[in-house]
Amino acid sequence: MSDNHLPFINSHPLDRRAFLRLGGGLSLSLGALPAARAESNVANLPGFGSAKSVIIVFASGGQSQFETWDPKPEAPELIRGEFSSIQSAVPDIRLSEHLPKMAQLADKYTIVRSMSHEDLDHGSAFYLSMTGNYHPNKTSNHPPQPFDLPCYSSILKRVRPESAFVQPAIHLNAPALVPELVGPGQFGGILGREYDPMFIGNVIAESIAMPGLSPIGELPEVRLNTRQSLLKTLEETNRFIDRHQRLTDMNEMYGQAFNLLADPKAQFAFDLGREPQAVRDRYGRNRAGQACLLARRLAEASVPLITVVFNHSNRGQDKFPTVTDEYGWDTHNDIFYALKTHLLPRFDLGFSALLEDLDERGLLESTLVICMGEFGRAPLVAVEKSFAGTSPGRKHWGNVYSIVMAGAGVSRGATLGRSDNRGAYPASEQFGPWDVTATIFSALGIDPAGHYSDPFDQMRPISIGKPMTALYAG
């Protein structure tokens, strides 16, 4: 099994000494501490407990709201940009002309057009999106650190470790790179490596998304038991070598890999080859499209929380300008070429296939789907001399941007919030990434106002936001 398909082990520097300086360490057991404590009664709130699974499609790099979900056709050209808008299936909703499939499906989702926060750099804004909290160094690009707050997936593993599937939280086409270094906030952080989500890289690199899951032939039970004994031996050995972080990470990796190997349900879910060719074509024969298809299969297998990093690098086009799979949404220059040629056709195909497929299979009723990025783009088209490219683009913009939410009771064919006529600031109630995390937990039936314990016996909030109850019909 290649590293590209293993639980992520080797890209972010976790320094054990940093934990010791904090007065604890990864060796501190969490077993004796209460996993979570509820603080409020939210069972009667709209959307609470409505989702069996949540799928987050993360458009890393900063998806432009002008060229996707919130076009401004009446604004001056330097604001509205080169693209036209088109009428969607909902009379008062217009989308970019390069999202024709999503326009046809506009009666299946809600566009939130008044997202807003104060962070303006990819690393820290990505951290904010993944954790629902500002990074200690706002507007910065720091690597992952052991004292980072855990991502929403890790918190789920802490407060609800039981799952019908062997892993409760899986990140696909991951980890997210910013643009070549691993972004902070997508790990267990202070909770430790055992609370990292499972990371699956390029799902089309081999015939099965998780190579090695299928035993060679019919692996006898005695051989499975032998492998389990070997894992126990490795655990004993690693007690003496746990000062070497990579070896301990590999120990955790082997344990997760064994669990997957022994689970027929996992073997089936990860085998994209079981899908009809027409279905695979509908999602798009690319990394992100097939990751969306795998997300649907994992939702069918009852995985509670699935994150698809739609583009594994937020700006891979600088090194690979001819490779569509490498393009990210960080379009400082050449935005219209990048969107029209590389980003929007692939996104329109893959994301629309996910929504349509879930709906046709009756899964959208119990699956909350969220498409979001770390921020939007600025309401002025201009060339930035410090970036590659010669035609205009848009800068980072967190003051207002858009996300899409669907399923699990979310209103269909609606918008929530609005931006001003320049697309620069909210013109209505605004929401932040903290509210998105609160909505995720609420949809899964977890009180976001509750708390979980960290390794230092401190109680930390599951979310500092509030569920976005206005999303739900009735």
How does this structure look, described?
This protein is of the alpha/beta class. It folds into 2 domains: 3-209 and 276-471, Alkaline Phosphatase, subunit A, CATH 3.40.720; 214-269. Helices cover 28% and strands 12% of the residues. The chain is built from 12 helices and 15 strands. It has helices spanning 16-21, 77-80, 100-104, 122-131, 152-159, 221-241, 245-261, 264-269, 277-283, 287-300, 335-360, 433-443, and strands at 36-37, 53-58, 85-87, 94-96, 109-115, 169-172, 198-200, 305-309, 367-372, 376-377, 396-397, 401-406, 414-416, 451-453, 459-461. The strands form 4 sheets. Strands 7-6-8-2-9-12-5-13 form an 8-stranded mixed sheet, with helices on both faces. It has a 3-stranded antiparallel sheet with strand order 1-14-15, covered by helices on one side. A two-stranded antiparallel ribbon has the order 3-4. Residues 1-34, 214-220 and 240-247 have low confidence and may be disordered.
Level-1 CATH class name of the largest domain: Alpha Beta
Rg, rounded, reads 22 Å
Structural class: alpha/beta
Q: pLDDT under 50 segments (min length 5)?
A: 1-34, 214-220, 240-247
Overall geometry: globular
**CATH second-level architecture of the largest domain:** 3-Layer(aba) Sandwich
Helix content: 25-40%
Q: Distance between the terminal alpha carbons, to the nearest Å?
A: 48 Å
Roughly what is the average pLDDT, rounded to an integer?
86
How many structurally independent domains? Answer: 2
Q: Could you name the CATH topology of the largest domain?
A: Alkaline Phosphatase, subunit A
Strand percentage, roughly?
Answer: 5-15%
| Number of H- or I-type helical stretches | 12
Q: Biggest sheet: strands, sense, closure?
A: 8 strands, mixed
